[in-house]
Automatic annotation (TrEMBL):
<feature type="compositionally biased region" description="Basic and acidic residues">
    <location>
        <begin position="15"/>
        <end position="26"/>
    </location>
</feature>
<dbReference type="InterPro" id="IPR001680">
    <property type="entry name" value="WD40_rpt"/>
</dbReference>
<keyword id="KW-0677">Repeat</keyword>
<feature type="repeat" description="WD">
    <location>
        <begin position="35"/>
        <end position="76"/>
    </location>
</feature>
<dbReference type="InterPro" id="IPR020472">
    <property type="entry name" value="WD40_PAC1"/>
</dbReference>
<feature type="region of interest" description="Disordered">
    <location>
        <begin position="1"/>
        <end position="27"/>
    </location>
</feature>
<dbReference type="InterPro" id="IPR015943">
    <property type="entry name" value="WD40/YVTN_repeat-like_dom_sf"/>
</dbReference>
<feature type="repeat" description="WD">
    <location>
        <begin position="295"/>
        <end position="336"/>
    </location>
</feature>
<dbReference type="InterPro" id="IPR011047">
    <property type="entry name" value="Quinoprotein_ADH-like_sf"/>
</dbReference>
<protein>
    <recommendedName>
        <fullName>WD repeat domain 88</fullName>
    </recommendedName>
</protein>
<feature type="repeat" description="WD">
    <location>
        <begin position="163"/>
        <end position="204"/>
    </location>
</feature>
<dbReference type="Pfam" id="PF00400">
    <property type="entry name" value="WD40"/>
</dbReference>
<dbReference type="InterPro" id="IPR019775">
    <property type="entry name" value="WD40_repeat_CS"/>
</dbReference>
<feature type="repeat" description="WD">
    <location>
        <begin position="206"/>
        <end position="242"/>
    </location>
</feature>
<keyword id="KW-0853">WD repeat</keyword>
<feature type="repeat" description="WD">
    <location>
        <begin position="253"/>
        <end position="294"/>
    </location>
</feature>
Amino acid sequence: MASENPDPLSVGRPSGEEEKGGERNLDSQVPVKVLRAHIDTVTAARFCFNDRCILSCSSDHSAILWDVHSCRPLRVFNQLHGKTITECALIPNSNRIITVSWDKKIVALDLETGQILWRSRQTGLLTSCSVSSDGRLVVCAADPQNAVYISEAASGQTLHHLSDHHHSTITRCRFDPQGQRVATVSSDRSIKLWDMLAQKTTVSIDSNHGNVVSDCCFTKNGHFLCTASWDKTLKLWDLQAGGFRSHGGTTLQRGHEGSVSSCSFSADANLLVSGSYDRTVSLWDMSSLSQVLILKGHSDWVTDVSISAERKLVASASKDGTVRLWDIENMEEIPEVMEKRRTEGSGIHILKSDI
């Protein structure tokens, strides 16, 4: 739903701009729409259905399917859980979603009918979830057991239970795009890759982040992993070349002034989006490893970010109870971006445009 009252802190509507439901970020000159329906922290916001919709979930125990064009809720699913919904994920090629919560439950829901297909209760507070690209498997992480559960998406039956997978809270779990490995990151500052075929951890990395590793994301071919951390930085890991074993990851410098909560690659891996507790969203050019744009407008922590397949829109979720939809299609025309491209465009090319 569109906001009628722009955030007085850093977002305004320039005189003469009459686009319904629109605001414009004065610092970045990027149009933004504000989606309001949740009444508590929005913990996740993800594009789905060919970028026609956004799926969000919240500490208010609800999940909402939004229409991107109108910025209005299509379906609101209340009281799916008894506590904060920490993450949600669409099952590919279906109308079904998975939600996980601090109430220790995984819920599979049919978006069309609103029917709960199955519930599965685990032994700990569930902090994250991910669905394999073929839609067959669900992975979730549990606290304080530092455990990982891999289950069938169709039935909820647990196939693998990895106990004490980390030494501390697992903050994020992700299937790689091929569904062959599960990446986990943790407040113990480590990164692990668990191989589905070998059924064991094949890669364990000391990230050298200076604080909790809060999120991770893969490029489309699975060759690179990005990690976000409360130490205010992001790092890139070349999993194919394995260079991290000798010299670690590549740090993206001078990005955020607060803890980084989230990260997401564009489909072509030329752009990285990150969200932070400094209330901003940053866009990074991967050919130069440089920050090209900062999006300001949230009045509280940014908890999650997502980028549309065609790189036209960025969605951000926040503790301020809103989802913001940023139109970045014309960002290359912004003088600030053009200047950064000109001065910083000769960086190390570690990611190729065909990834």
